[in-house]
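Dear Dr. V.,

Thank you for agreeing to look over these. As mentioned in my earlier message, I'm a first-year student in the group and I'm still getting used to reading structure tokens, so any feedback on how I've presented them would be very welcome. I ran two proteins. I've put each sequence directly above its structure. The first is here:
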Amino acid sequence: MQEIMSQYKYEDAVKQLQESGAIGLQDFKNLSYDDLTELLEEIKVWCLYANGKLDKLPKESKKKKEKKDKKDKKDKKD
């Protein structure tokens, strides 16, 4: 069961939402705490400001993108 949890990520949940417009409770359960928290925050913003348009839901995790950007900046310094 632990293996399944590590395979289902934020990006998978977003893709599922964009394709079907729904996500199940089991899928929420399979997300890591960080991915779940971020997804729920994004869903709130998406519902408020994007009127629930599926194409407006961010495909990439902002936290992961920030880490990647920081790493890229560090690599440029070296």
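The second protein is here, in the same arrangement:
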Amino acid sequence: MDIYHWGKKLTGYDYYDWSYLKATDNCDNCDVEDNYVCRSCQIQELSGSGLIYDDDGEWMIKKEKENGKN
């Protein structure tokens, strides 16, 4: 699996499971019934957490090495 961020190939990343995020009632783009979280709310909730939004529209997290360090 090749992962790209702003056209640059990244190594050492994996898909991030953000399924714990919940749709908000005060957002016109989120769907509370289907628990669809729009991209704007995803970015608001996940930015600053060390995650990367790749060129394919997926959230990626840096894999931890065997010794627990990145």
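From my reading of the second output: The two ends are 19 Å apart (CA to CA). The CA atoms of residues 57 and 63 lie 18 Å apart. Does that match how you would interpret it?

Kind regards,
E.
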